[in-house]
Amino acid sequence: MSIKKEAQKQFEYLKKGSTEIIQEKELLDRLEHSLKNNRPLKVKAGFDPTAPDIHVGHTVLLRKMKHFQDLGHEVIFLIGDFTGLIGDPSGQSKTRPSMTREQIKKNAQTYKNQVFKILNPDQTIIEFNSKWLGKLTSFDIIHLMAKYTVARILERDDFSERLEKNKPIGTHEILYPIMQAYDSVALEADVELGGTDQKFNLLVGRDIQKEYDQKPQIVLTMPLLEGTDGVEKMSKSLDNYIGISESPTEIYGKVMSISDSLMYRYYELLTDLPISTIQEYRKKSKQGEVNPKDLKSELAKSIVQDFWSRKEAEKAAREFERVFKQNKAPSNMESIFASSGKTPVIDLLTDQNIFSSRGEAKRMIRQGAVYLDNQRITDIGFIINLSGKEEAVLKVGKKRFYKIEKK
């Protein structure tokens, strides 16, 4: 295969699932140059360690990094331990509170432990931007800030919206995109990846690299993955996330809970299947040739396998079948304890912190969400009696199961 055709093949592979590439021709040219000169491209993506857990929404970007890695390019996982002290203003309606160095250090370590579920540890370079940003003197920072204008910074949507609403913008926040841009200078990046919400910051990187007589990086943005609710961006704070460190059964169950329409979006962004295959799935499902639940099961197993193993994925599928189709209790349940005599169900639900208040417990019983040994409890005065039995199964809602044992 000619170098030109090979470069085109790489380009098409890398473009899959992306939102925008700035500029496409530049990326194609650099891929050709890389092949001709046997020089891998330097590809960076930055992550501020603002939270300790990574969810599958983050892996959209990690998977694209893995695609570059698969093609032999140099992937740099950049932990923004310095920029994390500032706080990324992207998409923020107010100034973020500053993090402590201790928080950042702790979160950064968990990031390192988690990213290798996707990236190849032997082929991944991990950098911390305090390595170069922490060495900048006051003179260096003034010199750097002089290369960009306040007017350009205030063009970004989140800043202009805050100005219109008379919401404060911290002076330190203006530093963030400039500092992130300097990361690209320090690493001499050929490509920078980011979510669509990062586009402004990534473009600043192109401008600042020009100021330092470097070729401007190609910007490749990836879409923000919707959470399991199918509406909002996946976020731990919205409780619509799938954590990559969650158990196989939790991951599998959460994937099975998404809508059929969202399933194809997850297939596109969370698997390496070609678009043509995903389109064929959609067509066959629409024509009734395949059950959407079967497609969703394969998706769920694929995602579990990424973070655990195929064996664990199959096990999670069997457990889901057992609980939700055969209406049996899970193999592994959290144990809660009741006296061997008679225990009011309200007391059990609140004393074991299943619900935060008696009022909430009563409301859930009246709504028919509480079961004992598959029998719905409708009486808020119901008494649980373990006399003559060793244990019982308490079910709350569709997914929460507890094994009631004697004290």
3D structure, described in words:
The chain has 407 residues and is an alpha/beta fold. It has three domains: 220 residues, Rossmann fold; 78 residues, Tyrosyl-Transfer RNA Synthetase (Orthogonal Bundle), CATH 1.10.240; 73 residues, Structural Genomics Hypothetical 15.5 Kd Protein In mrcA-pckA Intergenic Region, Chain A (Roll). 48% of the residues lie in helices and 14% in strands. The chain is built from 18 helices and 13 strands. The strands form three sheets. A six-stranded mixed sheet has the order 1-6-5-2-3-4, sandwiched between helices. Helix 10 crosses helix 11, helix 12 runs antiparallel to helix 15 and helix 15 crosses helix 16. The longest helix is centred in the middle third of the chain and has 17 residues. It starts with a helix and ends with a strand. The relative contact order is 0.09.
List the main descriptive attributes of the protein structure presented here.
407 residues, alpha/beta, Rossmann fold, Tyrosyl-Transfer RNA Synthetase, Structural Genomics Hypothetical 15.5 Kd Protein In mrcA-pckA Intergenic Region, Chain A, 6-stranded mixed sheet, 5-stranded mixed sheet, 18 helices, 13 strands
